[in-house]
Amino acid sequence: MLVLLDSTVLIDYLRDRPVTRRVDALASTGDEPCTTGINVEEIMRGLFAPELAGAVGLFEGLQVLPVGLAQGWQAGDWRRQHAAKGITLAQADCLVAATAAAHHAILATGNPRDFPMQGLVVEHWPVGG
Questions:
Q1: pLDDT at residue 98 greater than cutoff 90
Q2: Residue 51 is assigned to a structural domain of this protein
């Protein structure tokens, strides 16, 4: 099973917080960690200089799932549907969620409330500390 690591999980991994053990354990369960180019951008934007080498190594070891037309369409549809209910969803979160859904991946995040999309499998991986 693919497990799409959201930016919150990736940040904590790079900072060697407790989520690191959970990510490292994926291989022993047969699950495959992955992410998106959107998450790569979010991480790169917030990196401290000493974290750069670790980030390069992390992303070289992850499958980066493509974001294309279908994902853009789904993300826009979710944003439109939620906006009609007065709920604002972030563009990046919707694109990440649509990518996870398209690849039947579990979305691992420290912020499950950012992903209220119906039909999306979201796992809360507590981060911080």
A1: yes
A2: yes
